[in-house]
Amino acid sequence: MYRHMNKLLFTIMLMLPFITYAETADQLVYQADQYRQSSDNLKVTSLIKLYKDGQLDKERIYDVYIKPDRKSLVISQSPSEKGQRVLMIDDKFWMLLPKTKRPIRITPMQKLLGEASTGDIASMRWSEDYSAEFIASHESSDRGYNELKLTAKRKGVTYSRIDLSLIPESNIPVQAKLYLISGKLAKIATFEMARIDGRQQVSKMTLKDKIQKNRYTEIEYIARASHSLSDKYYNPTYLARNPSLVIR
Fold this sequence. Notes:
Elements: H1 2-33, E1 42-52, E2 55-67, E3 71-76, E4 85-89, E5 92-96, E6 104-106, E7 111-113, E8 116-117, H2 118-122, E9 130-138, E10 145-152, E11 161-166, E12 173-179, E13 185-196, E14 199-208, E15 215-226, H3 236-241
């Protein structure tokens, strides 16, 4: 009996570091999220720029209205896409075009411009969609970082896996390797910080892939403000029936 108890105790002791790391990893990701989405109800104006051979090729601007429970409404403000909207509710995405009467079901990988997809700007919190695992701490001459593996815990997310690098102690995001469900590396995101409204926040995300090395896409967050949009706007049928409505 005592032998079995000792064996069980030894097994539990071996598991404790992994349990602690798992809990800590989720906490680190939650803290990293606060640099991207600081409020549950938020309006973010995102400027997307596509660069080719170092030169600006195209740009688009979007207003993104974010609510709790994975609700986002993306509204294009660029003249070439005026009236175009994308709605995210939980795991479902719809695109609404000004001259169509029915919402079109899309995936979060639907391209907006360059490497930027709808999921890249509609969702700004990893902790809601992924389970985190602590992988390792890395030291370098200028700055160390903690490496975490994020695994999707729901089907309708943009990427099935993310390898996330955070600065120790502050948990500021530095880099995210974004993987498809096939296991293929889709793109690499890097983050820039700035002091906005008295606190450190992510001011820009740059997306690159390994195939098209002569181009990259920047998502610049040019404005953030607390904003609770009415629930009626998070309904694809309502949006389709009111193509010319003004969102306030």
